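Deviations from the work plan: none for this task. Representative record:
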Amino acid sequence: MTRRVVVTGLGAITPLGGDVRSLFDALVTGRSGVRKLDHRLSVCGAGRIAAPVVEELDSKFSKVKLVSMDRVTKLALLATREAVASAEIGFGSAIAERAGIYWGTGMGGAVTLENAYTELLVKHASRLRPATIVMAMNNAAAGQIGIEFGIRGPSHTYSSACSSSAVAIGEAFRAVRFGVVDVAIAGGAEALLTRGVITAWESLQTLAKEDPECPRTSCRPFALDRSGFVLGEGAGALILESEESARNRGATICAEIVGYGNTTDAANLTQPDVLGQARAMAGALAEAGLSAEDVGYINAHGTGTRVGDICETLAIKVVFGEHARQLPVSATKALHGHLMGATGAVEMVATVEALRARIAPPTAHLFHADPECDLDYVSSGARELPHMRVAMSNSFGFGGSNAVIVARRYPHLP
Amino acid sequence: MTTLQTVQELLIERFGFERHEVDAEAKLHELGIDSLARIEFMFVLEEKFNLLPTEPTVAVSTVGGIAEQVDALIARQRVTTAARSSAVQR
């Protein structure tokens, strides 16, 4: 028996603001969250460009709770609070045991770990904060979400680099679809704007060079003058629910999740693979029972690296054939940055909002077309798509982990 | 300032409690101070009172209990220090 799976709540805290509305408004209007870090925004990362969350976080938690919370957990809880509130769902005893947590993160409590190593190895501290382990562990956010909302079903934390939270959403979709849970809190969070992490990424030579005249436009996916991605932080959360559960409680349904594809490249840790990505897209469409022509918009992985952009373009052509020529594809990372383990969730939130509004957000900063990237990247501003019924969100991670989610407008119109 | 008053001030400063919440009889678990927060607070106390790092010997459940434990640790350290110095004089 399989069940229909719907989205009933959305939450996000991103470099574009503290909620879903600020995220989608900025994406549609082309406002960038990329900026130069100062000491207020970073652990010694000042001077570099990044996409930080600028909202003040600590006042939203009790000081006793803050003792054992990394920044990544605060972001996770804030996004989840918005999603739970927008779903207008409570987790009483009956529903709590049929509810699960499916969360993604790349590096978990990176800030805590870096602070601890600095204390120990640089300042020669004799001991570390007692909560160091439980703040740094990858499943800290999932545990804290469970505590705050009283979720008593399964709890999973997925870590597959940039596809982590897309995997989390996909696995949550399957868990609801196949009756493991009735409700899932699904999403991901990342907070890694530390000196150590940024420096390590710099060594990999994948980060965008700062545009000296307009740093906010430094990330340029699919453009000839792109130079890489901009590291970001944030969190996205979705409430997934069986259609029956949502209807029984009279919930507002935002969209339906209809397909999930997950493949491994089995080729290279960092170089993406056209066929690995294509198989993930095709798998998601097959599970959805949809054809390529049904898809009206793709939120691309589109990081702004030369190899990644060209690979994804080719993979889309493999899967969509002729339809690829008239299929709007956009990379919102130009504006919110690359949120690593959180990026799949934030982009899925954006994709659901795009479906609801029937508007494709643009690929910003695409001023110079690359002949090797010749799809319709929505480069001249947001576009109304009055006939859009189905949208796809792509996420591809280091390690060769590809995760693709397909969503459909609800109610489904023929 | 008594030990209790200092403990209360530190609880207010570190965890953001109101003064009336941290009476001597206030139960730690009702304040939301779990085992991790207790250890964290113990570190704060060790710095404030120049205590040697130590394992708490008595299970403490109230704000007043923390102050009593601090007093006991200070007293024990004084005895130990005095014993050491008399041993040196001999």
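The helical segments of chain B are 3-15, 35-48, 63-89.
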